[in-house]
């Protein structure tokens, strides 16, 4: 599977009040349209007293499945703006549902678009994003005296440290792309005059925070 961006947690909730109306975002990772529909049904049942439960979702590496619903809001003021926010953030395999409890003040078409898009956009920002990258899992082993130097070199060269383990030596696990591996090994061997070992594992998905 290719690399792609998704939300950091499996599910996330966020809400705001706009002119006395509550807008509640629930967003989740999904792997199929059936998963998306199930999540929508769960949230809609939870908020069955709400005025609207508007949804949008994108599924597939190239967004092969895109769906949305205004759920009673004026056409084009809710579902489409939500979908556009998901795509603008380059998210894949996610479903977003925004619940609205009407507070008595009408927002107008422009206000609704801003409210639904803004709720998704701000909620996604609060949730945080990760890039799911296919990388080799590499375990680097150095002595204790060299561990700080290794950590500094990795972070300054934008390598994400996934785990650090300690026994008679220090073992640091980092994801490295296949294309970078030869240069990565050469640079670290030169830095530590050969006093570093590499255990190269299989390719797997790593989730790297998006800054």
UniProtKB/TrEMBL annotation:
<dbReference type="InterPro" id="IPR015269">
    <property type="entry name" value="UPF0029_Impact_C"/>
</dbReference>
<dbReference type="InterPro" id="IPR020569">
    <property type="entry name" value="UPF0029_Impact_CS"/>
</dbReference>
<dbReference type="InterPro" id="IPR023582">
    <property type="entry name" value="Impact"/>
</dbReference>
<dbReference type="InterPro" id="IPR036956">
    <property type="entry name" value="Impact_N_sf"/>
</dbReference>
<dbReference type="Pfam" id="PF09186">
    <property type="entry name" value="DUF1949"/>
</dbReference>
<dbReference type="Pfam" id="PF01205">
    <property type="entry name" value="Impact_N"/>
</dbReference>
<protein>
    <submittedName>
        <fullName>YigZ family protein</fullName>
    </submittedName>
</protein>
<dbReference type="InterPro" id="IPR015796">
    <property type="entry name" value="Impact_YigZ-like"/>
</dbReference>
<feature type="domain" description="Impact N-terminal">
    <location>
        <begin position="19"/>
        <end position="120"/>
    </location>
</feature>
<feature type="domain" description="UPF0029">
    <location>
        <begin position="140"/>
        <end position="195"/>
    </location>
</feature>
<dbReference type="InterPro" id="IPR001498">
    <property type="entry name" value="Impact_N"/>
</dbReference>
<dbReference type="InterPro" id="IPR020568">
    <property type="entry name" value="Ribosomal_Su5_D2-typ_SF"/>
</dbReference>
<dbReference type="InterPro" id="IPR035647">
    <property type="entry name" value="EFG_III/V"/>
</dbReference>
<comment type="similarity">
    <text>Belongs to the IMPACT family.</text>
</comment>
